[in-house]
Amino acid sequence: MLGSLNHILAQDIASPFDVPRQNLSAMDGYAIAKGSQLSESSTIEIVGESQAGSAYTGETAAGQGIRIFTGAVVPDCCDTVIMQENTNFADIRATVDKSRPYNITLTQTAKVDDNIRSQGEEIESGEAVLKIGKRLNPADISLLANLGISQVNVFQPLVVGVLATGDELVSIGNELQSLAQIYNSNTPTLKSLLSDLPITIRDYGIIPDNLEQTTIAVNEAMQDCDVLISTAGVSVGDYDFLTTVIETLGQINHYKVAMKLVSLLYLVN
Q1: pLDDT digits (tens, 9 = 90+) for 205-256
Q2: Residue 194 falls inside a structural domain
Q3: I want to staple 186 with a disulfide (CB 3.0 to 4.6 A). Which of 44, 201, 231, 257 is the partner?
Q4: 222 located within any domain
Q5: 234 in a domain, yes or no?
Q6: What gap in Å lies between CA 201 and CA 178, rounded to an integer?
Q7: CA dist list (Å): 100 to 96, 97, 103, 125, 207
Q8: Which of 53, 50, 48 is nearest to 65 (CA)?
Q9: Is residue 166 located within the same domain as residue 234?
Q10: 224 and 202 inside one domain
């Protein structure tokens, strides 16, 4: 599943179960039986305990309840969770024998359904949680893990080729031999812009201003890549061969872009 990070989802994902899967306590405190008095000063008999990973399996009657902890299952016989801070818990804690029933007193009136995360309140079983075409991010991976989904179908990443042309270009790391040479900054820039995308990048290096070599390089990229991004060689100069090569190997659908460059000067006092 981790291998799908940043890839494009090729299927809809539906939750296989409710989230939460059952009613859970949102607080440390006491789960109170249905039909109990929930007013201030009411006394509740505590007859059991439910903790995360170990649910209470017994029964409770009106006027009874169980000790419960955050994330623990609220039994079907209970419909309210009282925060321990809203009871006399602090006063009796040192004297309580958990192996035997004991009484607590409410110090604040409660309401039915208080402090319960209801089954399915976040996600319902069968609910679509991720749609085809979604680029998977860390939050999506967390969601899939919470749903127990270990594998998903993703689209095969696009292969994007990067190619630079020009006799004047020199790869970074090599020395400039003359004033006519410049470093190839376009390829590192393009690769850094593309690096965050769910693609495979292939670098075809620097191609000299030569028709045959340009043809060979473009033809190779056409066989290997879904997309080829090239820089330079597309003007009307005597050594701009890329347009000629493209017209020979395929066709040009769009050429030239009408654009206006506006410079803005900001004065800061």
Answers
A1: 999 988 999 899 999 999 999 999 988 877 766 667 788 888 888 777 777 7
A2: yes
A3: 231
A4: yes
A5: yes
A6: 31
A7: 9, 6, 10, 39, 84
A8: 48
A9: yes
A10: yes
